[in-house]
Design goal:
The protein has 124 residues and is an alpha+beta fold. The protein is built from four helices and four strands, in the order αααββαββ. A two-stranded antiparallel ribbon has the order 1-2. A two-stranded antiparallel sheet has the order 3-4. The chain starts with 15 loop residues before the first helix and ends in a 6-residue tail after the last strand. The C terminus is likely disordered.
């Protein structure tokens, strides 16, 4: 089970769609229930978000028994005109970290996401 982050009130910089996508990038086999806990959303909201992402070509999944395996399309361009030309991979490079790298400063290693290796720049 995914560890539940502290509660938060007020506005945030990241949308629920981006949070769900980042959770899937961290674990392509993650359960909807675990995404909901991690993102502090209802399972129904997560299902709607996944449907949105799949409908617009940002995400796909295959089913093996009771397990979904998600595949992110890293070359898809972000939707908002202000982010024209930026890809899903560039967004995820900011949001996704290996558990061993959480909380550390400095260079964050490359990491495959959705079949493509993301390269994150060092943080200072």
């Amino acid at each position: 089970m995914v560890e539940v982050p502290e509660s938060h009130t007020g506005w945030t910089f990241v949308t629920n769609h981006a949070r769900v996508l980042a959770a899937i990038a961290d674990n392509p086999n993650i359960r909807i229930r675990d995404i909901a806990v991690r993102c502090r959303l209802t399972e129904r909201a997560v299902q709607r978000i996944i449907s949105d992402l799949e409908q617009d070509g940002y995400l796909s999944h295959t089913r093996d028994g009771r397990t979904n395996t998600y595949r992110i399309q890293p070359d898809q361009v972000l939707r908002h005109p202000a982010e024209a030309g930026l890809t899903v991979a560039s967004l995820l490079s900011l949001l996704v970290q290996d558990e061993t790298d959480r909380g550390r400063h400095g260079s964050v290693p490359s990491r495959p996401v959705g079949g493509t290796t993301l390269r994150r720049e060092g943080r200072g």
